[in-house]
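B., you asked whether I could sanity-check this one before it goes into the benchmark set. Here's the sequence:
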Amino acid sequence: MIDYLIVGQGLAGSCLAWQLLQRGKRVLVLDVPGNNRSSMIAAGLFNPITGKLMTRTWMAETLFSTLFDFYPQVERTLNEKFFFPMPLYRPFLSVQEQNEWMGHSAQPENQKFIDRIHTTSAYGDQAHDSFGGIVIKPCGFVDVPVFLQTVRSFLVQQNAFIEEWFDETQLRHSPTEVTYKQWKASAIIFCTGTSKTNLWKAAPVKPLKGETLTIKLDQKPKLIYNRGVYVVPGKENLYKVGATYETQNLSESITEAAKLELSARTRKLLTLSFEIVDQNWGLRPTSPDRRPMLGHHPDSKNVVIFNGLGTKGVSLAPYFSAHLANWLTGAAEIMPTVNINRFKALYSKS
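And here's what the prediction gave me:
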């Protein structure tokens, strides 16, 4: 008998497994690692001020406080490095934008996220910033592939990981337990991203395709640059550039259109010359309101979902995996803003 069966070992499943193990629970994770395309190509960027309108991320203070505790704790415990705090620079496009952010910087709720505002070019040798720009904190990136592999190795050591496709026809559930093949558990949690299951076919998970480039630079950027695209360090002198946002063409392949778009945006951001060495794609699981989805199935309280982390999985997963773990162990109620029951269509009988 195990306590929890987790399907999927992307960011959601990895963080949840860790949280439950830290609470003394027995878990078993089922996954085929090569299927985690969204997590495996992710640049892992975390940034509290995002979007075209440069708005503070929802729950920024709570989320960033949690992630700055979570990832270093996993690093220390498993003796691996994958968490890299680093300032982020966003160039201004006009004097008007510069003035607007001078005003924003005076607001107490923004001060903790603004390191410095430059009113003249500060990094012109590497980026186009004629009007200056804003240095944002706390930012950085998680090397997601290394994080996932590190957690997977730990799970294997704990006899808590099996590499296999989940076969839904083998699942049985009653009001008191779930049974999958030879295993019994008190609940099963689906952290399956954009992969559909019959039990959760009504869940409004919307795939958002993203494509990225890997580029080679001869000069090391002084910080993370982000305007139109992000430029995030990778291994050696390689950098991840992205990403596109495609809701219609969900083809499972790279496209020339995305390559041209990302190349043009990179040239617009950087003054540095670059060489494209790779291109990749992934499907992120998003929700209609851009909030995570947590909670139990309308017909079974021990069939649970943890999904919808979208483009901010690195920032959302630590806090909401803890939130879900607390709910599973009876220590908290799920926030209404992320509870899966907010989508009434899920509960219809149609």
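One thing to flag: The radius of gyration is 21 Å. Otherwise nothing jumped out at me.
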